[in-house]
Amino acid sequence: MIEILQVDTPSLGDRSYLATDGTVALVVDAQRDIDRVLALAGERGVRITHVLETHVHNDYLTGGLALARETGAAYCVGGADRVAFDRVPVADGDVLEITPSARVRVLATPGHTFTHLAYVLTGESGAPFAVFTGGSLLFGATGRTDLLGAAHAAELARAQHASAARLAATLPDEVAVLPTHGFGSFCAATATASVDSSTIGQEKARNPALTLSVDRFVAELLAGLDAYPAYYTRMGPGNAAGPSAPDLSRPGQAGPEELRRRLAAGEWLVDLRSRRVFAAGHLAGSLGFEMGDSLAPQLGWLLPEGTPVTLLGETAGQVAAAQRELVRIGIDRPAAIATGQPEDWAAGDQLASFPAADFAALAAARRERPVTVLDVRRNLEWVAGHVDGAVHIPLHELRGRLAEVPGGELWVHCHSGYRATVAASLLEAAHRDVTAIDDDFGHAAGAGLPVVPERVTAGTRLAAAQSPGGVLRTSTVPL
User: What is the pTM of this model?
Assistant: First the structure.
């Protein structure tokens, strides 16, 4: 029996895998914080002999190289990928012997990248029972094809369609599909199916890459692509260079004077407390990024490259959790940390604050006085439906477009409140009069706000689905 363990990273919408026969193990698409995988191998008393990469990732820094060096495992990376480190180059048709009873067959599946690979896990008889598909075949979707540049998106979309067809034609219907992306990842071209497992047969029935003609698939995929985090442009080169293991030791504790100095120098002070608590009172000039699954993608998207970050949290555990999230996207070492409450950090200076409200309060305010509604959702969210008369500036563009925000009283909203609080903290730091709407956009129409009717087309699907909870799932597959 082969046990396949899923190591989930919900904040990035990704999964890594450890497959073991109880003695040795292989790991596929390891995240940067390799201590999680090492702990799993240690708990089961197994030795990691192979570490595999399906592709040079664009959404996180890999832990594959560090894991291979730590364990002495063979590090298998596509031979066509240009990398700056020693690896075992693999290519289409190669077979890796993991144990006498388990082998991996390499399949070229270009689309998400030009050199993307899938890994088919086979038993002693040679019959396949699982395929690690990386970003090529997701649950009800495929990986996006524009991460190497918009000029390549159409060509790669056609390749993605052909790769899905190859997997479906090559593998039996009962083979388990084990993707790396698609559980809330911006790497997914469209929303993935709300399921926790799938097979080749199930994907044949529902995946657009296997149910649509190539022309229609390409058209719908390209129309559905929206913006992706700015830090993605740094992940590919970082992975090709070979990331080291992260340093998760605790940074130094900053006092009030150091915090003032860092703010004055233009550094970012990131407050991890809940968004309602942050709105009620925070260190003037700090920015509110509530600790949770949205922290890494949103902070990584907005943070100017090279800007030092100081993490402010209620507890050391909250700060440590944030530090772990950030190393996965290359924010390696906070400049400092501060724990406690904003009164401790301000040392007598007046705290800043702004109101937090709901859509009903916005509707009441609009009946009483002129206010500006600022929508900071992404473009496809805006197209699908928005408050009539609102100003639209996506959050990731806000810092560069502050001059375009109308004067006067501002009410800012997103889909559920997280991005609205981040935007409000940016605006408040720029001395704007702002209220953050901490409410679900689905409540806007019910609150009496005129919402422009949805104009859903093939291209107005959101690029990410909700991430599932949990960090580990286990399945056992007979050989």
Answer: 0.91
